[in-house]
Automatic annotation (TrEMBL):
Matches recorded under Gene3D superfamilies: Dipeptide-binding Protein, Domain 1, Dipeptide-binding Protein, Domain 3, Periplasmic binding protein-like II
Segments forming domain Solute-binding protein family: 120-446
Compartments in which it is found: Cell envelope
Family classification: Belongs to the bacterial solute-binding protein 5 family.
InterPro entries, per the entry: Peptide/Ni-bd, SBP_5, SBP_5_dom
GO BP of this protein: peptide transport
One Pfam family here: SBP_bac_5
Main location: other
GO molecular function, one term: peptide transmembrane transporter activity
Signal sequence interval, chain numbering: none
One Gene Ontology term, aspect cellular component: cell envelope
Listed name of the protein: ABC transporter substrate-binding protein
């Protein structure tokens, strides 16, 4: 029996690429765990059946967070209501950068791949993908017989056109947070009716994540897309399971089952979903408890504490890389001296933040994007802990014993409480913080330098949603030319290390480079990463099969009223 299994593995390997075989080698050599193998294999293009078979030859099954309510038989038809944080601005695939907007996009739009709760990639509009030996050219096979919700066929040319539009800086796409420095306009080419080839600016071992649901702006659009997403006869165009029949800015929308959805095994059970846009967390929680909405995609552990003991509510808990970044502008006083930034980080008690703010529904982070749930994180790097005496010594050495600063952020979830805790922590070491807490639209502004308190403030707290790999967190907020570099951090050594990390295709090299990056960021401390929190969602007990991603995206394809 063992010989037969080995022969089958050998046959599989003969048809695999050099990159795919390298991942298999790492697994059988014991260099990576089964969980790490499944994740890495999905990235380089190994199919899930092949991954499952090979992984079964080498160990125990990987475990992950609970991303959905348990699978249950549901009635066909009916309608439910979802409570969602209001989109901050117009829903535009190129401009969306907030939770409300990205959840809306996820209903009628689809991606080449879906990044699931276990950090694996599942094929969606791409059936498969593969890379050349160094990860500089990626080839995606595009699913056939898919139509947009206006009835027009989706083609490989649509895929290439969509990615090239987002890669063009002239269009100001938020997707550049992931694509900048990775590929340029024209790098995506439809080589035939079912194939798109991406020629990258440099090797990238995690590229498939950058065109997956992780890069939430990249829903596939028709090649004729004219830039008007919310209005006109092509409004809310996409290939997803739902069609928008009404949309009222600031109030809500209604989606109905898309009868031409390509994935017949996952055609929605519900006839329709009403969406209520509710700006603040407490009204959303109360609406769920009062049954005026049946699903809330995201609540904080502190703001939704009552939901954990409500017998009418099922809580979905997804381990995620979602976190808050506390930026300190390295080009403005009092933070031009890294000793001041280090002192601020040393003033915080991270265990108290995790327990007090988030009721334990979070993990302590170490002031870098390398969170504990990422396989590439070097966990041997020492954890930063609270040290008030050292913080005071650093401030004295920097000549900033009584510094004052304004901290800007926005009002929702635990963020205002976090701001107050930072304020009280800094008071213990002699710092004075004035809080400037606004709504999300004001804080994020136009999301460009010069027109955004997020990107322009001396100090701020920003919400970052989950990603399956740390690439975006390493790039957009921290590299010298990053589109979200609110700390205005410029460090050539860091930029070079990130370039090397991104190019690495094997986990061992990634871990080695991760350790160097972690230590550099602990020294420089442009941003405080104090914790990453679980994504929590709430569902009424009579509703089943709701899936929530680490990002808070809602997959309602199998959702329905319990039979």
């Amino acid at each position: 029996m063992q010989d037969e299994i080995q022969q089958r593995v050998d046959r599989i390997r003969r048809s695999r690429s050099e990159l795919e075989n390298h991942v298999i080698d790492e697994f059988f050599a014991g260099h990576i765990s089964r969980r790490e193998f499944v994740r890495a294999g999905s990235v380089v293009g190994l199919s899930l059946p092949l991954l499952s078979f090979i992984a079964a030859c080498g160990g125990n099954a990987p475990s992950g967070g609970t991303s959905s309510t348990s699978s249950t038989n549901v009635k066909k038809g009916g309608k439910i209501t979802v409570g969602l944080i209001s989109p901050a601005h117009a829903v535009d695939p190129f401009k969306v950068g907030d939770e409300g907007g990205l959840v809306v996009l996820f209903q009628m739009g689809e991606y080449l791949a879906f990044s699931d709760a276990n950090l694996k990639l599942q094929p969606r509009l791409a059936e498969s993908w593969s890379a050349n030996s160094d990860g500089s050219v990626w080839t995606f096979k595009i699913r056939q017989n898919v139509t947009f919700n206006d009835g027009t066929p989706m083609t490989a040319e649509d895929v290439a056109a969509t990615v090239n539009l987002h890669a063009d800086p002239a269009n100001g796409s938020n997707a550049l947070s992931a694509l900048k420095g990775v590929l340029t306009k024209g790098a995506a080419k439809a080589t035939d009716a079912s194939t798109v080839q991406f020629t990258l600016d440099a090797p990238n071992g995690n590229f498939p994540y950058l065109v997956s649901s992780d890069n939430y702006n990249l829903i596939i659009l028709p090649k004729t897309y004219n830039g008007n997403f919310e209005k006109g006869d092509k409004a809310f165009i996409g290939t997803g399971p739902w069609k928008v029949t009404s949309f009222q800015t600031g109030a809500g929308m209604t989606t109905v089952r898309n009868p031409s959805y390509w994935d017949k095994a996952n055609t929605p059970a519900l006839d329709a979903v009403d969406w209520k846009f509710i700006a603040e967390e407490q009204p959303r929680v109360l609406a769920l408890q009062g049954n005026s909405v049946q699903v809330v995609n995201h609540f904080s552990a502190s703001g939704g504490q009552a939901l954990f003991t409500d017998q009418n509510i099922n809580v979905i808990d997804v381990k995620a890389a979602a976190h808050r970044q506390v930026h300190m502008r390295t080009d403005m006083e009092p933070f031009t001296d890294k000793r001041v930034r280090q002192a601020v980080a040393l003033s915080l008690s991270r265990p108290d933040l995790v327990q007090g703010l988030l009721n334990g529904k979070a993990q302590i982070a170490n002031d870098s994007p390398f969170l504990k749930l990422y396989p590439s994180t070097d966990t041997s790097v020492a954890q930063r802990t609270q040290n008030l005496d050292k913080a005071k010594q650093l401030l004295a050495a920097a000549g900033k014993t009584n510094f004052a600063v304004t901290l800007s952020t926005w009002k929702d979830y635990e963020i205002p409480d976090y701001a107050q805790l930072i304020q009280s922590s800094l008071k213990k070491i002699g710092g004075t913080i004035t809080l400037n807490i606004t709504d999300s639209s004001t804080y994020y502004g136009d999301a460009v330098f010069g027109k955004s308190p997020w990107l322009d403030s001396v100090m701020g707290i920003t919400d970052y949603g989950h990603r399956g790999v740390p690439n975006v967190f390493l790039g957009a907020p921290l590299v010298s030319t990053g589109t979200w570099n609110s700390a205005h951090f410029k460090n050539p050594q860091y930029d070079q290390l990130v370039k090397q990390y991104v190019a690495a295709v094997d986990l061992q090299t990634q871990k080695k480079l991760a350790g160097q990056i972690e230590n550099l960021l602990l020294d420089e401390t442009p941003i405080i990463f104090a914790y990453n929190y679980d994504t929590l969602g709430g569902v009424r007990s009579n509703i089943a099969n709701v899936e929530i991603t680490g990002y808070g995206q809602l997959d309602l394809r199998k959702t329905g009223i319990k039979a």
